[in-house]
Design goal:
globular; alpha+beta; about 160 residues; four-stranded mixed beta sheet; 4 helices
């Protein structure tokens, strides 16, 4: 058997694929879903990938994305995600010092992913996300927000 893969949309950018989807009548919740990194969530873990880091970044990402939806910010963002950084920091939880992980949140606007600007999310929202992440995700005691544009930075960190 000599089979051939047919990929008619392979050369299109994300914005062009969305236009085709709109013409085909696709539901908006699918059409406006944020792009997900092609290599998978592992690309958002800097350094060695472990089960514990995957769990942490999945939990952080879920809180961030659901928070964007709950606060009607999801559709104002082209892509959002979280990044597990290869550093740990000192913190205090209760009466104890902690030495835990740092995660970064990233939200950008773009049309095609070739250039992107960081989204000016409300401070109150960022504060709420930081508190929720630190209180709900075991192993995280610091949350930072990435305010880099593309270029010079890229949308993903890896």
């Amino acid at each position: 058997m000599k089979l051939k893969i047919v990929e008619p949309l392979k050369t299109l950018f994300k914005d062009e694929v969305r236009e085709i989807g709109k013409e085909l009548g696709m539901p908006s919740h699918l059409l406006n879903r944020h792009p997900f990194p092609g290599p998978g969530l592992g690309i958002r873990i800097l350094g060695d990938i472990t089960q514990d880091k995957v769990r942490i970044i999945q939990d952080v990402d879920h809180i961030f994305i659901e928070g964007l939806k709950e606060h009607n910010l999801y559709n104002k963002v082209w892509q959002a995600g979280s990044v597990f950084l290869p550093i740990r920091s000192v913190g205090v939880m209760g009466d104890e010092r902690t030495y835990e992980n740092v995660v970064a949140l990233r939200a950008v606007t773009s049309t095609d992913g070739m250039t992107a600007d960081w989204v000016h999310l409300p401070y109150e929202f960022l504060g709420k996300m930081s508190s929720e992440i630190i209180n709900r995700v075991k192993g995280v005691n610091r949350v930072v927000y990435d305010i880099s544009s593309k270029p010079p930075a890229t949308i993903e960190w890896e």
